[in-house]
């Protein structure tokens, strides 16, 4: 059994996670702009998920991101206007629609991800490979402990 974390360690953890969250928000906004100048960060996250997971119903996206269906509908409309998402009939239920990232969106997302990996590789160049692996393992453990969403 492990000893309970010390309160000062938890305070420092909260501070570092706060820095990480602010950085992630900034990165998401930057990535959104790189995909399309008019793409909002929340829509970027939705687009990324749809591109990675394949065709899905808007209701599934709403559930995943804990966003009401009206907000998702507005985001989908905007993404369609930008040419980044398309809708098609669900073959299992002709009344429902499936969202898919357009080929252009997939390519833009891929390009942005490659640029971000290059940026990270440059910034983390001084890290030992083992340190990066340990950090990644500990971050995964942290996420598992808190319950990934």
Automatic annotation (TrEMBL):
It holds the Pfam family MarR_2. One of its GO terms (molecular function) is DNA-binding transcription factor activity. Coiled coil: none annotated. SMART domains: HTH_MARR. PROSITE patterns: HTH_MARR_2. Residues 10-144 form the HTH marR-type domain. One of its GO terms (biological process) is response to stress. InterPro entries: HTH_MarR-typ, MarR/SlyA-like, WH-like_DNA-bd_sf, WH_DNA-bd_sf. This is Unannotated protein.
């Amino acid at each position: 059994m492990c000893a309970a974390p010390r309160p000062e360690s938890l305070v420092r953890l909260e501070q570092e996670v706060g820095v990480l969250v602010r950085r992630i928000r900034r990165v998401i906004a930057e990535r959104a702009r790189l995909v399309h100048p008019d793409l909002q960060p929340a829509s970027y996250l939705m687009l990324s998920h749809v591109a990675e997971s394949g065709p899905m119903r808007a209701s599934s996206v709403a559930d995943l991101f804990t966003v009401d269906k009206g907000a998702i509908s507005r985001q989908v409309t905007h993404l369609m206007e930008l040419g980044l998402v398309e809708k098609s009939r669900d073959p299992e239920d002709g009344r429902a629609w499936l969202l898919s990232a357009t080929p252009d969106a997939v390519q833009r997302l891929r390009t942005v991800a490659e640029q971000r990996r290059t940026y990270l590789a440059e910034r983390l160049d001084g890290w030992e490979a083992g340190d990066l692996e340990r950090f990644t393992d500990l971050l995964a453990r942290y996420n598992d402990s808190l319950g990934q969403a």
